[in-house]
Design goal:
76% helix, mainly alpha
Length: 118
Amino acid sequence: MIGLAALLLLAGKGRIAGYSGIIAGFFFSGGQRWRAAFLIGTILGAAVTIQGFHLQISQLTLSPSLLLAGFLVGLGARLANGCTSGHGICGIGRFSVRSLIATGLFMFSGMLVVAFVH
């Protein structure tokens, strides 16, 4: 479904469905309507999925460390010219060499962390 949404956005608007770019564009540049629709659609899609499959979601308590983590993830996504979903789904789908390298580095870093933690 995510890949289909990315394809439809690319074919319909000529835009890439990378979340960091959509969110940054929503707050800092024009074209808020389609970005707002995309973000609202994501939230509604998650809500429909939760209700449809009767999923149990635990409550999340905001804390300073959680807010800092979110900020650092957003900063890293902007510095990397895209988030993992943007590079992994949209970039590789467009045969972007930069996205292929970035996704490989994301995967390698994740495997490295798992190897050290376990």
